[in-house]
Amino acid sequence: MYLGIDLGTSEVKVLLLAPTGRVIGTAGSPFTVSRPHQRWAEQNPADWWDGTRAALAALRARHPDEFAQIRGIGLSGQMHGAVLLDAEDRVLRPAILWNDMRSVDECGELTARAPELHRIAGNLAMPGFTAPKLLWVQRHEPERFRKTACVLLPKDYLRLMLTGEKVSDPSDAAGTLWLDVAKRDWSDALLAACDMRRAQMPRLAEGSAPSGTLRPQVAREFGLKDGVVVAAGGGDNATSAIGIGAIQPGDGFVSLGTSGVLCVVGDRFRPNPSSAVHAFCHAIPDRWHQMSVVLSAASCLRWVCKLTSTDEPTLLAEVAALPHDALATAPLFLPYLSGERTPHNDPYAQGVFFGMTHATDRALLGYAVLEGVTLALTDGLDALRAAGTEARALSLIGGGARSNYWAQLLADALDTPTRKHGGGETGAALGAARLGWLAAGGDPATVLTKPPVEIEFTPDPARHAALRARLDAYRALYRHVRPLFDPARAPLA
């Protein structure tokens, strides 16, 4: 058996995979995000470990015989988070997360310090990335910066707890802005721009390669044999791609999780930072991928449900029952509740409803939210296409992928067939388990298969044309309100 551990922002998911490729079972443990100041987002790494242990205990209780047969473990995790350790491997402060926007000024500083940043890292300096966070710590918490002996990404902190090893992989490390993404190795020049050294970085291994074995005390806690191998793993988007078999150029997916991601695989490093497109390494050798990112996706749906005192199934049913002319009467929604990444890289952007009347009800607000996230993803696909990247079809993963209505809306807006696979909501955890299988000696031809297509959604040309008109209005709305988001950027009279 093979185990996948996916450390997300809202929960940790664990998945048990049989050598037939069948998912035996899953379990999870939820987290909350601490926001001690506006635009901050933090979590305590100890909570990740406690949650992982709880989820593993639950999975073991449900499937004791299969759990005892685990031979390989893979890791997946939220990207960009900064876990600062001292020389004794003690955590120095809460982890600063991917959706933390405090380091805006440091992004400009890093760009000035590292003229080769875009060429080497393949990405713009954004507050979500790891390197600007360390410049912020250096400026505002100099004693903690001085004590920092190692910086780990979130999933790699779990690895330290599991194996005692400090290791990362190129797919996750590409999101730090310290990696030479073409060479898949740390860049001494980019580290030096942050007054950091290679010695403060974990060693790198490809995502499908072994990174260590379980510590004896961890193996005993869960009734596992000695020598269980732990794969290097990958960032959540790369492992999601592994989970749905997106390994060849042109394969792609849309992830509707806390954030939204549109990812397409390629066989070489193709940066396009001018449109805030991400160019990262894949979790397997000799593959890269391009991504557009929406910082708030399914989290927007949760937010509007809370705002209107309902739950997601109820609201989605109300949206699906709307008449066809809802597209023309619904408000526009900018889904920038945590800022904006692709294509504008605007950390000051905020959520906006525009065009409400007395006739606007809860269902129309719900539709507007689904459409707003969809249009943001369409904005991103247009940026990928401008860089020469095309997707033949897009698989859907993440919690939002459960909605057939949203899936069809995406197909219509993106003008690309979209596909749902069985168990799509476990994509990253499944991908992590597959990497654990490979690290334990699995054959890639057997492991890296595409799950069966459950349903395919074909674009509707008439709806696509209507949504392109809505996209024009959506873009115009952003241009008009952008100066109001940041008073320092455009002072009011």
Automatic annotation (TrEMBL):
Domain Carbohydrate kinase FGGY C-terminal: from-to ranges: 253-439
GO molecular-function term, one example from the UniProt record: D-xylulokinase activity
HAMAP family for the chain: XylB (MF_02220)
UniProt keyword list: ATP-binding, Carbohydrate metabolism, Kinase, Nucleotide-binding, Transferase, Xylose metabolism
Highest taxon, organism lineage: Bacteria
Residues at the site labelled Important for activity: 6
Protein name (Swiss-Prot/TrEMBL): Xylulose kinase
